[in-house]
Amino acid sequence: MDCIFCKIIDGSIPSRKIYEDEEVLAFHDIQPAAAQHALIIPKKHIATMNDVQAEDWQLIGSVHRAAQIVAKELGVAESGYRLINNCGKDGGQVVFHIHYHLLGGEKLGPLHARS
């Protein structure tokens, strides 16, 4: 498999880890879009949110639990943060291994509806 996140999980590509357990890995994004920008990924390869199956629901819960831990570790849990999952090409997904961006550490702009 030629998945960059799978290679980060197996250690063949280095990362600056923030959190890791048996199911989830979180690390600093190499192109941060905010003062604090972490990527949180399940260790199981799932391409997109649309590919999540019933047997993966607990895993997705573990990813969200890891987001809480990472937010505390990065010092943004109290001030606030944004947790984003891009799904599919039109949704802005670039790496097709489900992942969440945790952004914080500064005041983030509002998301506006298209007029």
TrEMBL record:
A motif (Histidine triad motif) lies at residues 97-101. Residues 4-113 form the HIT domain. The active site is at H99. CDD domains: PKCI_related (cd01276). One of its GO terms (molecular function) is catalytic activity. InterPro entries: Histidine_triad_HIT, HIT-like, HIT-like_sf. PROSITE patterns: HIT_2. This is Histidine triad nucleotide-binding protein. It comes from Paenibacillus contaminans. The lineage of its organism: Bacteria, Bacillati, Bacillota, Bacilli, Bacillales.
